[in-house]
Amino acid sequence: MHPPTDRPRVAGPERAAGGSGRRVPALGGVGVLVLCGIGVLLAAADTYVIVLALPEMMVGVGLDGDELQRAAPLVSMFLLGYVVVLPLVGRISDVVGRISVLVGALVVFTAGSVVTASAPALAEAVTGRFLQGAGGGALVPVTLALVADLWPPQQRGVPLGLVGAVQEAGAVLGPLFGAGILAFADWRAIFWVNGIAGAVLSVGLLGGRRGVSGAAPRGRPDYLGAMLATLALAAGGVALVRPVALERSVAWGEVLVPMVAASSWTTPLAVTAIVATVAFVARELTAARPLIDLRRAPAVLRAADLPGAILLGAALGGIVLSFAAADTAERVIAPSGPWLLLGSAVAFAAFGWRQRRASSPLVPAVAVRARPAWGALVVSVFVGAALVAVVVDVPVLARTVLPGADQFDAAVVLLRFLVALPVGALLGGWLVRRLSPALLTCVGMALATTGLVAMSTWGLGSLDGVGSDLVLALAGLGFGLAVAPVNSAILAAVSAETHGVASALVVVARMIGMLAGLSALTAIGLRRLYDVQARIDSPAVTCPRTPTDCPAYDDAVRTAIVEQLQATFTGAAVCAAVAAAAALLLHQPRPHPVPKQ
Q1: Average pLDDT estimate for 107-123
Q2: For 100, 155, 480, 484, which has the most beta carbons within 10 A of its beta carbon?
Q3: Which pLDDT score is estimated for 536?
Q4: Cα–Cα separations (whole angstroms), residue 222 to 7, 274, 558
Q5: How far is the C-alpha of 321 from the C-alpha of 202, rounded, in Å?
Q6: Torsions phi, psi for 193 (to 5 deg)
Q7: How far apart, in whole angstroms, are the C-alpha atoms of residue 126 and residue 54?
Q8: CA-CA distance, 86 to 108, in Å (whole number)?
Q9: Where does the pLDDT of residue 593 fall: very low under 50, low under 70, confident under 90, or very high at 90 and above?
């Protein structure tokens, strides 16, 4: 007998609509999806918020302003957590159900936010960022799988477009959210707000479980388990944060004084948290109706293929670190990149061997056997490679060609593109109900290619008129149009039992494409920059009378930077064109009718 799950059932969250044979989600399912969408927005915004918070974070964890390389793990470890756990999390959601995994992901994201907000040094902040990436990244594929569970294929377009639009809107709202908080508080407040929001959403999802499962909980809730969990979290949180007012309190300050010298884990509060955690685990293993059924954990991990997930995570982690830790001004990959990529190749080979041997593999063959399924992964890689060039290099171009432009002015220029992205995602979700995913993706990426080709011709005065605004909006609309069709194609091509892992693979493919594309396209642009710089005379030659104030030399340098960006946009246009061509793989041929006997 299979263990019960919270995966949606037709009898519960869905009801027949007008006798047409179609099903629509019950109101509870829609409410849960709204909460999931807010969680996706929160995690997406957190991906971009560090752009503004990083300088203050560096000072807050003991780094100097010129130690940017040491601060790189604050970004790379977030990306590592985002990527390496997704296949396992997606597969677990196929085994135990979506809501449990979504709640767990929010709990991990909340814990990571608290650890980051209270981090006294770099190591703790990096740990918190990894947890934030692991929890926040898991929300996207599991939410997409939940959409596939709740809506039939012909009705998934709009909700998939909404999820995609919310995810892309994070690029707009993340920096604004960070700037708004930094105007009144320090960087730690950003992550405290994230933690509070994550906790509220997780409670809301637990309350909305019935709306998805369609079944009322049986028996009395495990109040003792809830009390022990609350005590462990509260005591552990205060012990970790160490509020100044509590430390200085004459009556209560001793709860933060270590009982063993130089060991922060021996304070009375920390010991209380440890004891409460142990008691909670013991309670969950013995309770008739536990909050978290830990007894099922070994069976779930076997069904989700934990060894396969570790191998695939190691392979993906090597790729992420090879590109994310690279100094793109000097090389495409990090100095340790060759060894990391060799390790990834070995891990991939071992993963392939494991896939053939495992009775319940991490990625069942049916999940990627259909052409639209693996075609969606190919498209996602090249979409990510092209997309990252716009997000990174348009602000650089703006600061270069606009007189007196600062970071804010550059962000305003990019805003034309970022606003068009979610609009395109919504439009693509609406159109995919009427047009094929292959056609929509091809048209969207053709529009993106057109925009990138135009960007590859931009010079020193190209951002002065409205033409550049139209180009950026066109490119953003094109990228957005491809979001829902790609997800719709892979979800329609695989069985319901693999929606979670299939969605996770699409997200991973896009992220890998962004990382690899950023390094490769930057390397192409820098090669062009170095070639142009070699032909520029020094200020002493160009302006022998006033070498310290030489407009001709400054214009030559700006022109060299523009030519570098033109080469980068050209490479991105090629990637977008490849994605448009690869969109043909998303076409699902109609089955031939079986002749009547």
Answers
A1: 84
A2: 484
A3: 63
A4: 22, 20, 66
A5: 31
A6: -65, -40
A7: 12
A8: 13
A9: very low
